[in-house]
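Practice set, problem 2.
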Amino acid sequence: MRIGYIGGHSPKVNERAIDDQWTRYLGEYAELVKIPPLSFMKLFGGSIDGWKRRFPDNVMELGEGLQSLCFKYEIQTFYLNLPFVIPYVMMARNAKGIDLSMLFIAHSVATPFWLKQWLALAPFITEKDVVLHSTASCKEALMRISPRFELSVHAPLCIDLRDAIPNTGGKDRIMLAIGRIEDVKNVDFLLNCFSRIRGQVPDARLVIAGEYTGTKQQIEKYRGCIEEYMNRYGLHDAVEFTGAVLGEEKQKLFAESRLLVNLSTDPGETFGFNLLEAKASGLPVVCTRWNGFQELVAEGEDGLFVDCSWTSHMPVIDEEHAIEQCVGVLTDNDLHRRLSQGALSRVKAYDYQLIMPRIVDFAIQAKGHSFSGIEQKHVVRIANTAIEEMQDIYLLEHLQRFGWLNETPYTVLSVPQDEPLSGWMNKVKPIIGHFAGEAPIYAQY
């Protein structure tokens, strides 16, 4: 099976690491056809913003260019690894009536960027498309936006187990936190917990591997917050910030640490890939009961949860519980050994050699469907119809708080979003309120 994809790499380290691996795995089970980024962007005249200024007159033009691209590269399935173009490409595909399946991953649901993407593409998704959700929690969130996402199919992110370096037991009592450094990841909360953990485990160390993300203003503000906590608790001798890590350097961190800690309450979280990477090394995890974490980790088998409630505007993590769970893994060798063995056992279900053939099967099935999208002449009309007028497509009761109901699937993509986190979390709660958990949810595997 031939699957086209856009060459190049994401500028974000975490996205690049996942996407590059995923594409490499897929290439073992399908014939991947790399489309040069410049060739693809020529469909938009070289500029998305320029193309948008001519909408809707250029939708058929984009469709014709897309069709020519598919003929040139002989593809009938397109892995769209540039999320910001998906709605426009789907509009053009439907308008032109191209016999083309779209394949893409629901990396997130409820960040401002991704929510607008889902609102924009909901009317244009068809049975020929493969939308992959990594957890049941992710699909539930999608379904709270639109029943059209019933079409999405489950395929967790996966990993090459041969890349992992086995965990050595973490004799140095290193707590590892890895990923983006920003407010939704609660690194400041982690530093507060760690200052108290040291009272019980004086030789404990914390390694924070990742880069600050967000706008320049957001980065400067959060960096200042982190520095304040470091100074307040006197942590400079016990906390190391490594910056972004990749490849063998990252694998060594998983091998040498005592536990991975992830206290995220990120509205964009769907899976928790670093939890899977830790599992592959046999590194126990302590994480919040938050969204996909609850399906990826099995309580007491390969990790421990920290309770998280969401009864007000913002999720609240149980600080005492977080400290207790971390101290337990740091000090109890039998517990650490049991969780490590459980991780190595359960990670086998996420081997890419099991997951990727299923994804290719999904793509083959989708390719076999006849094209039955929106009638070509209605694509532009629907793209320019207010969301509030399409109750058959959207669950409006979950979208009321955003103030976007008078937007259209096309205009919603350009709505500016610079709202503080607390305000956004309150608005998005009807869609992802189920992310926070205090009661156990059984892991998938």
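Problem 2, part (b): a different protein.
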Amino acid sequence: MKSMKRGKFIVIEGLDACGKSTISQKITAYFDAVMLNALPKSIKPWLHTIGKTEHPEATFSYFTLCNIIKAQEVNSILATGKNVILDRYFYSTYVYHKQMLNGNVPKEMMAIYNELLQPDLVVFLDVPQKIREERIRGRAVEIQWYGDAVSLKNDLTNSYFEMFKELNTNVLIVDNYSNSANATTAIIVDRLKAIGLDSCK
């Protein structure tokens, strides 16, 4: 009996307000994939309480647990042959908290991430800092101290690139400002087809 072909695992990364949700939805629809966000339903309610602590050590631990649980969920779906598009993974967790902790991150944290399920491809959506700031300030939602507030004060783009290099990540960097959403999607689709994803179109 022929074994089932394992699905591909794709992560959409980038700083706040770079268009991750929009692009994730377009890619998911194109390939009839399973789209997931970074927060597991089982512990999503915890974030409200943990967020009130305003301790980055607490949110770092929480989001790391989210990544571990999400990796297990993704692995189960891939085994069925479905492709998975994940909106953010451990890259954002590490980069944001490294900034909040002034670089004082235990080396064991990187070791944990290095042992987690690795994506077949990470797509990093690059948008200029000034544009992202305008988008964040224009949102009618509360600015989170562990999220939007961090990327408003700091351009963490290079921190992502350094992490990708350290982990030898297969990454596609796409300008999601100069390109329209459709143009960005087309670039990503071409790359995903090249690594073996089949279109449902």
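Answer key, part (b): The chain has a mean pLDDT of 95. The domain at 9-194 is CATH 3.40.50.300 (Rossmann fold).
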